[in-house]
Every structure is written in structure tokens, then in C-alpha cells.
Amino acid sequence: MNKLAKRAWFAYFLAAAMFVGLIVILVRYAVSAPDWITNYAVGAPDRVRFRNDMVVDRSGTMLMDYTDEKSELADDEAVRAAMIHILGDTQGNIPSYMLNAYAGEMSGYDRLTGIRHVDGSYGKMQLTVSAFAQKAAVNAFGDQKGTIGVYNYKTGEILCMVSFPNYDPHNMPDIADDPDAYDGVYVNRFLHSAYTPGSTFKLVTAAAALAEIDDIKDRTFHCEGSALIGDEVVICNHSHGDIGFNEALCQSCNVAFAHIAQELGAERLSKYADRIGIGSSLSFDGFITKKGNFDLSSATTFEAAWAGVGQYTDQINLCQYMTFVGAIANGGEAALPYLVENVRFGTEIQYQAERKTGGRILDPQVAADLADMMHYNVANNYHVYVGDCFVGAKSGTAERGAGLNPDALFAGFVRSEEYPLAFVVIVEGGGEGSTTCAPIIQQVLDACIVAIDS
Ligand SMILES: [Zn+2]
How many domains does the chain have? Predict the structure, then answer.
């Protein structure tokens, strides 16, 4: 090849590289420009000055107002505290995942003409949560640590989501001065934590048993308060004697469920835990939930059975588990949760939520049978009422290790056309699941019903 030809090829190469680079920049601009121009980033409180937007709850109650150079939060102290893990803070301790995700829509930024603040228009985000229900959760929880969530399993709207501890951003406490009281205060425990499920996990084992063991509903188990499984002993909360499948869930018999888990075996249990999404995360409105864990790859016979009872290395994320409970109530398939209903700029709708489903995770008959069993629990044990509605639930008491009080968990649903709600609550160190959690969920459900009716 002579010198001239080499130079020509080099020129072609340069031209091609510039062309590809130009395309990359244009594509990145088209996709990301709104995020570049408006960043509510962590540690950048100064940027607040450039904002011109507000956030309201499902009924229009102001949660955050940054229009006309204001910087205000909700009037009610409890609502301000309940909202910090959703809205983030301006000190940069709690990221504003959601506001960042919709920064472009909130600013009304236009890729061709730039930002349009000139006509006095501002961004307005409407959330699905109810300030009234958020406040009810704060009042019901008191000083306890943990988290609570309630959502509509037919539409996906989250009506209540609060993580404890929290604080009123207008009266910032001295967190370093009381590290125990504010342990993990910057974490949204509902979305970004995973917990040992304890007996609430018996719902997963029961779902697998209903699908895989033909005569499970007619089986009788025998519990003498403990049983040797593999080479270790499973301890039960009582000596239940002869006990059927339905009663075993109602009385939360560890011996019966360890035998059921053993019969299902590690492979089938893992298949159902996967299908239900225990080890997967959900992603919505800028949030990505923490993955749970169900790993029996190196489990002994005892450990696999112990996992079927909700212990061993089991971990659940409460938001993900709430959608599972919603699917039980809704015939095996539930809507995926979300928080942002819509975003407007001026009169224009920039974003409108759409209902999405997580797909079928349970056979309709399995879901119906399990819902009946959970309703039987409520009728016999828990006493959570929503008018005449069909309510189902399962409690859990999750061991955390020597010297620590167990965590109290409660997961359930209201099966109703008017109030199709699924709920999950955990009180860390709260002891027995139903005793601690049922009164909390009752108060919050009552508030959610008011929010739906109003
Ligand atoms: Zn038992």
C-alpha cells in the first residue's frame, strides 16, 4: 500500500470515529438531559434554590412545597417524620431517589427549548400515599423500630409506607447523642432492608405444599413439642398432638411445617421461593428494593426443614413480601407497587402511572386455599377487622440470636372490591408477632379505609 492510500484510510477512520462519537453523545443527550440539568443529588442542598415544584399526597395534602422560592414541608410534624424516607432530606443523609427519578418531568425541561420557568408554571407530583395513613402509622408505632407498608394489590398504589426510627426534619434531633434510638435512621427499612421472616414464611411452604402434595389438606401431623429432623431437633411453641394442615398454619406448628418442608425437599421449596420472588428485587419510581435470600445449596436435611419454617438463612424484603400476600388475596397475581401517581408541569401531564402486574406466581386454586387458611387464622387468633370484609393474615416471631428479643412480623390482606389492601409490618425486638403487630395494623388499616373513602 502506498503512503497516499494509508493516509486516505486514516482519514476515513477518523471520520467514522467522529460520527460514532456524535451518535453516542446525541443518544445520551436524548435519554439523560433532563437528569443532567436538574439533579436533586445527595449533599447538594444549594440546588434546592433552583427548584420550583411541589409534592402532594393522594388527596392533595401538601407534603413538600418548593414553589415561589418557598422551602416548606407538611404542616403536621408526624407526617413530616413519616415522609423523610420517601422524599429524602436536604442534608444529604437520605437520598432523594424518587425526586431524582422524576427530576426532568418536575422541571418541565424540554430537550429543544430548555427549562420553562418563565410563565410561572411549576412541577407537581402526586403520590399514592395518604398523609392521614402515614400519620396513623407514626402514632401506632410510637418509639418502636421497624416498618409498615399497605398497598392496593389491584392497582399497585402504596397507601402507607413508613420506616422507624425517623425524625421531624424541622426539629433535627442529635442523632450522634443517642445512637441506639436512631440506629439505622437513614435507611428505609421497608425498601432497603431484609429480615428473617420467622413463621410468616410458612405461607411460602404452605403454597408449595398445596401445589405439590395432593392430599395435603387431609394430612394429619403429630407434634410432641419437638421432633428430630435429620440430626437436629426442631422445637415447637407448644405440644400440639395430632394436628391437620389448616390448624398447623393457624397454630403455627413448627413440627408439622418442618415435616412438610422435609417432604417437599430443598429443590421444590427453592423453586417456589424463586417463583414468589423472595430472592428478587422490585424496582419502581427510582427505588430498587433489597433482595431477600432463600439459599439451600449447602443446607443439611435439618437446615432445609428449618428454612421451611422461616429461619436458617432466610431473609425477606417486606415490600416484595407484601406483593406476595397481595397475590394470595388476588387469585395468584398482584399489581406491582408504586408511589408516584402522576407528575404535571403547569397544566401538562408529564408522567402518569400505569398498572403493572408481577405475573402469575400462584395457581388460582392454591391462592384461594391459602387465602381461606389465612382467614381462618384471623377468625381464630388475630382479630383484625375491616367492616364485614374477608381479612386473612399470618404472624411471625423471628429469632435474632441469643440475648435479643425476637422480631414481631405480621402479613395479610383484606379481600374486598372496595378495599383490596395487602399489608406487612415488622416491629424489631417486638416479641410475639400477632400481639405486637395486630393493633398497629388495625389502626393503619382504619386510616387507609378513611383515605380510600374520602
Ligand atoms: Zn407443634
Answer: 1
